[in-house]
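Box 3.1 A note on notation
Throughout this textbook, protein chains are presented in two layers. The first layer is the amino acid sequence; the second is a token string describing backbone geometry. Keep the layers aligned when reading.
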Amino acid sequence: MVATPTFKIKIYSDGADLSDMQAINKNDFVTGFTTNPSLLKKAGVTNYLEFAKKTVATFPDEPISFEVFSNDFPTMEKEAHLLHDLGKNVYVKVPIRTTDGQSTAELIHNLTAAGVQVNVTAIATTDQVAESLAAIEPGTPSIVSIFVGRVADTGADPRPFVEESVALTAKRDEVELLWASTREINNIYQAQEAGVDIITVPPAIIAKLVSHFGQTGDDVTMNTVKGFEADIKATGLHILG
């Protein structure tokens, strides 16, 4: 019998392919979804609102995050309300900065004051976490997404960033901290141990988690050498003539 992983941390799938999302949702440990413009491009989505409506209809109870597209505040606010109105389970993703570097704190405050659940995204510093928390209207359920993988990509150790973010968000019961830009399965365990509320995981890593869960070191060795052998035979390469 294949072992099934269980976690204390919430695991959301990060993607924009509806068929992939339906397949991934069969895993009991996946309890929500996140999307972003880059994932929409990768999935070949051509009509954002149609995709969003289908997604909400398919998953009416799981939390789903959809991102605003604009960079001017009046349009961002209109987009946010439109996305919010798609379903009670929708969180509206708002980057902490616009593309010209402006803070979106005032917009975040206005939206959450109006009852819009936000997912503040693209956060890479503890100052930005604090800024987000100050902007979120008390009582409105919201998510603060820290891009741990992208911080690690710079060569910095992200652990202090995660620890400080956990401490800051712990003061707000209605705000959940999300570990974004997951790079490997071990990030799930790292996030869980650190006290992060949610981690968003790409479908490829979820598939790897399911297929590799419970393997021993010897299993890893044998799977590796058997894979090498299969590739040797497939290529027809040889050393001795």
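The two ends are 44 Å apart (CA to CA). The beta strands are 10-14, 30-34, 64-67, 90-95, 118-123, 142-147, 175-180, 198-201.
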